[in-house]
Design a protein that fits this description.
Blueprint lengths: L1 H6 L2 H23 L4 H23 L8 H26 L4 H22 L7 H22 L6 H27 L5 H24 L9 H29 L1 H6 L4 H13 L5 H19 L12 H13 L4 H4 L1
Helix pairs in contact: 2-5, 2-9, 2-11, 3-4, 3-8, 3-9, 4-7, 4-8, 5-6, 5-7, 5-11, 5-12, 5-13, 6-7, 6-12
Organism: Streptomyces populi
Main location: membrane
Family: Belongs to the EamA transporter family.
Length: 330
């Protein structure tokens, strides 16, 4: 009984999700080092599509009927949240370390979403939110300055980081349209439709490069990483994430997203030998502090009134969505 209660703990499931998402950045980098970035993206999400289709077959309600219009909208969302996001993400990985991606994407996505909600008047700007966004912007500037200079930087890394920022913009946009576009569709099925649509387009993008890959010379580690990314960082992480959010709410779940850069830093450092200089490190810390302040609005989520959750958690939920769902966080 105790074992079952522990394995069903929402915070344990969310913690496992963050580990899967955090490690996905360095795992994706290991794939891109041996195949073109377009092929790497297709391997990951082609496999994820197969894994999610299997998950729907096993865990999805067999009697559930999804309206054709809802299915089309969910697939359309995959163009932005899977195809565009991961096209830029894997392209960036071919130019810059995964260490940078694990800082910029999961942290900048909620910052960008919060900024959009404030500019459009959908949320009010308290002092904590405003200060957090200002810190986030400052941290991003410092981080990019560090990427462009010094022994650890260079133009290639700077361009890669710029592509990671575009990825964050794509994911923030997907998060903003997601609740409306994916409404009325069970989360597992919605993610499956989006992933399949995005994977199909990634396959079209990768088609010219597929013929140039010498498949017999591809190391076994590339295949192992691809399977891990598809099954672990996509299917399993998605399932755990949605269960955790359903139990504790998006505001509490989103705060755990800030553990993703920590996991990614450990993986990138120990497995890939990546590093960044002091200026980038300072920018990363400022960026993390600003994002945390903007998302929490200077308060612990447990102290928020339940009645305020629909407004207060809108931007906070974006941190949980940046990433990775499995396809986004890494």
């Amino acid at each position: 009984m105790e074992t079952r209660r522990w394995t069903n703990s929402p915070y344990l499931q969310l913690s496992m999700t963050m580990v899967l998402w955090g490690s996905a950045f360095s795992s994706s980098k290991a794939v891109v080092e041996h195949v073109p970035h377009s092929v790497g993206a297709f391997l990951r999400f082609g496999g994820a599509a197969v894994a999610l289709l299997l998950a729907v077959r096993l865990f999805g309600g067999r009697g559930t009927r999804v309206p054709a219009r809802s299915a089309r909208r969910a697939a359309g969302a995959g163009v932005l949240g899977v195809f565009a996001y991961n096209g830029f993400f894997f392209w960036g990985l071919s130019l810059a370390p995964s260490l940078d991606a694990g800082i910029l994407i999961p942290v900048m996505s909620p910052v960008l979403t919060s900024a959009f909600l404030l500019v459009t008047g959908k949320e009010r700007a308290g002092w904590a939110r405003t200060a957090g966004l200002a810190l986030g912007l400052l941290g991003a500037v410092v981080f990019f300055l560090g990427a462009g200079g010094g022994a650890q930087g260079g133009s290639s890394r700077l361009w890669g980081d710029a592509l990671f920022l575009v990825s964050a913009v794509c994911w923030a946009s997907y998060t903003l349209v997601g609740p409306r576009v994916l409404s009325g569709v069970e989360p597992l099925r919605a993610t499956t439709y989006a992933t399949c649509a995005g994977a199909l387009l990634l396959g079209v993008l990768a088609a010219p490069d597929l013929a140039e890959v010498r498949w017999s010379e591809v190391p076994s580690g590339v295949w192992l990483n691809s399977v891990y990314l598809a099954v672990g960082a996509a299917a399993v992480a998605n399932l755990f994430y949605y269960r955790g959010v359903a139990s504790v709410g998006p505001a509490n779940a989103s705060l755990m997203m800030f553990s993703v850069p920590v996991v990614n830093t450990l993986c990138a450092t120990f497995f890939l030998g990546e590093s960044f200089g002091r200026l980038q490190g300072a920018g990363a810390l400022i960026l993390l502090a600003g994002a945390a302040l903007a998302v929490t609005q200077g308060r612990l989520p447990g102290r928020r009134a339940a009645s305020a959750r629909p407004r207060a958690s809108t931007a906070a939920a974006t941190a949980g969505r940046s990433g990775p769902r499995g396809e986004a966080a890494g």
